[in-house]
Amino acid sequence: MTVTTKLIDYSDEEGNNFEGVLYIPKNVKQSKVPAVLIFPAFRGITHFEKDKGQQIAELGFVAFVADVYGKGVRPTERADAFATMGPLVSNRVEKLKPRLFAAVNTLKTFSEVDTSKIAAIGYCFGGLCVLDLARYNAGLKGVVSYHGTLKPIPDIALDPIVGTTVYVHHGDADFHIAKDQVDGFHEEMRTRQADFVFVSHANAVHAFTEPEADSFNAPGIGYNEKAAKRSWNATLDLFKEIF
């Protein structure tokens, strides 16, 4: 299927400027279709997230790769990426939340999007982003986190998650996401009365979906083809269910 790609400038309520990437299936004319937000891993937007946007649009959905870091902020070194991500993770309500909702609200402005059928997927840091949107009851049909941080948002009420199916794909050998995070996440979802699915992939470590992960040369980071394919196939099944 032919896909149209556009760079989209947008901003959040704090005045920060962003540049996301929009993918629209060519066969979308007058009818509105479901849409999927894609939140990048710790490096920000890379070709990996762009490839996912292309794949999703080829399924007939609108896809939007969100820019959480800011227009022109594309770290190439690990240290720079963590330095950019750090302040957002340490202040998820005041700094990160406006950026997440700016992406959601921007996606809703496109005439091709059925705003009642929006999902979000995210990798690593992006996994934390989509889980936070579920926690904020952002009106999404579903969210999928791949090897994402599972810690709850500090100092907010554990209100029920309503109308959003939560999927988590976790590497069973991922020591970056400690067992207490996994256990705590299950307790949080139960307290929130969430519709959630948690899948622990055998032998998978952190960043298991990313083919380039082995080149990072970092402990506990690596690609796992079987886990990557299984988690993606499960995501496609979820889209069929919620859309």
UniProtKB/TrEMBL annotation:
Stretches assigned to the Dienelactone hydrolase domain: 18-242
Coiled-coil annotated spans: none
MF annotations from Gene Ontology: hydrolase activity
Keywords, ordered alphabetically: Hydrolase
Pfam families in the record: DLH
Matching SUPFAM superfamilies: alpha/beta-Hydrolases (SSF53474)
InterPro entries (UniProt xref): AB_hydrolase_fold (IPR029058), Dienelactn_hydro (IPR002925), FrsA_esterase (IPR050261)
Domain of life of the native organism: Eukaryota
The protein's name: Dienelactone hydrolase domain-containing protein
Lineage: Eukaryota, Metazoa, Ecdysozoa, Nematoda, Chromadorea
